[in-house]
Specification:
It is a single chain. This protein is globular. The protein has two domains: 3-182 and 346-394, Rossmann fold, CATH 3.40.50.1480; 190-341, NAD(P)-binding Rossmann-like Domain (Rossmann fold), CATH 3.40.50.720. Helices cover 45% and strands 15% of the residues. The strands form two sheets. An eight-stranded mixed beta sheet has the order 9-8-7-10-11-14-13-12, sandwiched between helices. The chain has a seven-stranded parallel beta sheet with strand order 3-2-1-4-5-6-15, sandwiched between helices. The relative contact order is 0.13. It contains 17 helices and 15 strands. It has helices spanning 14-25, 29-41, 57-68, 85-93, 106-118, 130-138, 154-165, 180-203, 219-230, 242-250, 258-264, 280-285, 304-307, 338-341, 348-367, 381-395, 404-411; strands at residues 48-52, 72-76, 97-99, 123-126, 148-151, 173-175, 211-215, 234-238, 254-255, 267-270, 291-294, 312-316, 319-324, 327-332, 376-377. The chain has 417 residues and is an alpha/beta fold. It binds adenine. Adenine is lined by residues 53-54, 56, 58-59, 190, 340, 345-346, 351.
């Protein structure tokens, strides 16, 4: 491959990466169906796609699907710690422009984003909104060539909606996160399971009998709380939204303020999407031995900067111990997304749904080229339901369908008591 076409850690890892991608694909039956169709119909023919999304085996399965659909792809990660180096090497070997490695500095992270932008993408795929942000603030010259973009995650969608409100958005975006077949599964099941995968790989701690404090009760927080309960923990939820707090209460969790939870928790997990959820003042109230982890997109939820003022030791990979006024406080994955920084992110079986939505969203943008406004769109319901049907089929699950009489009943308003 020509010089500058990729920048990865070690090409010797390519064979391992290929096997890992194949293992992911074996669990991504719905995406494989989309891939078969893409191969026949080539909906992305000749289109340059620029991506900033965790470089994992599941993302590689999406990239391969886009390539089968005719796209030319350049990819970088969306978190300095989440790249799977073997997967990056395998993609590079397959001719993909891939820029990223686990443990990038902030500067390298932005250089890699820049490499993707140098490719002049016509479609952008973001997870967290960094590509869209770079384009709108520093590379506006690219906008005239851009058909549209997609956003994978809640945090990115919040950023996009803020841009839309400010009338700052300059090309159409699809909030993939807002498809039901994305957020009801990936956020709940994926974050729920993989957050514990990360905490356990970091610490190998027994969860049963511990008090787990979950900050935030959105789809991700609900998933984390439910898995904590399933593993035998006593679960406390902190929330600012009264409806969600009430929901948590009626699901059987204790609900309290963080300042009170701080005194009793053994394991603290932030999953709010907002900043400074656990401050150093909270940390000072914690018990000796408390463990902190973040499962929100950016590393702003825990006051890592505050913690770094105290002496620390790296205990094992992804696990540090801080000496805060004579108490030991432990931090997983440097306060970055614990599931991707310390483990492998969401399992393939659930990313299957998210990445079907990504593939269909890109196809939708191309089909509707020139017809969409500079707004944040959600995929049409029939496409969302289509993803669920594909997944059910791939799992061998059959469901009933409405009879004509039932359909009519649902559309009538004059059949009452
Ligand atoms: N986000 C969360 N888990 C992921 C995964 N396995 N691959 C890509 N993005 C993710």
């Amino acid at each position: 491959m020509e010089e500058g076409m990729f920048n990865v850690k070690d090409m010797k890892l390519a064979e391992k990466g290929k096997l890992n991608i194949e293992w992911a694909e074996a669990q991504m039956g719905a995406l494989m169906k989309v891939r078969e169709r893409f191969e026949r119909e080539k909906p992305l023919k000749g289109i340059r796609v620029g991506m900033a999304l965790h470089i994992t085996k599941e993302t590689a399965a999406l990239v391969r699907t886009m390539v089968k659909g005719g796209a030319d792809v350049a990819i970088t990660g969306c978190n300095p710690l989440s790249t799977q180096d073997d997967v990056a090497a395998a993609l590079a070997k397959e001719g993909i422009r891939v820029y990223g490695w686990k443990g990038e500095t902030r500067e390298e992270y932005y250089q890699n984003l820049q490499s993707v932008l140098s490719f002049k993408p016509q479609l952008t795929v973001d997870d967290g909104g960094d590509l869209v942000h770079e384009i709108h603030t520093k590379h506006q010259e690219l906008i005239q060539g851009i058909i549209g973009g997609t956003e994978e995650t809640t945090t990115g969608v919040i950023r996009l909606r803020a841009m839309e409100e400010d009338k700052a958005l300059r090309y159409p975006l699809i909030a993939v996160n807002d498809s039901e077949t994305k957020h009801l599964f990936d956020n709940y099941l994926g974050t729920g399971q993989s957050t514990f995968d990360g905490i356990i790989r970091a610490s190998n701690i027994l969860i049963a009998g511990k008090t787990v404090v979950v900050a935030g009760f959105g789809d991700c927080g609900r998933g984390v709380a439910s898995r904590a309960k399933g593993l035998g923990a006593r679960v406390i939820v902190t929330e600012v939204n009264p409806v969600r707090a009430l929901q948590a209460f009626h699901e059987g969790y204790e609900v309290m303020k963080m300042e009170n939870a701080a005194r009793v928790g053994d394991i603290f997990i932030t999953v709010t999407g907002d900043k400074r959820i656990i401050t150093i003042e909270h940390v000072k109230k914690m018990k000796d031995g408390a463990i902190l982890a973040n499962a929100g997109h950016f590393d702003v939820e825990l006051d890592v900067e505050g913690l770094r003022k105290y002496p620390s030791k790296q205990i094992r990979a992804g696990f540090e111990r801080f000496d805060v006024g004579g108490k030991h406080i432990y931090l997983c994955g440097e306060g970055r997304l614990v599931n991707l920084a310390v483990a492998e992110g969401h399992p393939s079986g659930v990313m299957d749904l998210s990445f079907c939505n990504q593939a269909l969203a890109l196809e939708y943008l191309v089909k509707n080229r020139g017809k969409l406004e500079n707004r944040v769109y959600v995929l049409p319901r029939e496409l969302d339901e289509g993803v669920a049907m594909l997944k059910l089929k791939s799992l061998g699950v059959e469901i009933d369908s409405l009879t004509e009489e039932q359909r009519e009943y649902l559309h009538s308003w004059n059949q009452g008591t």
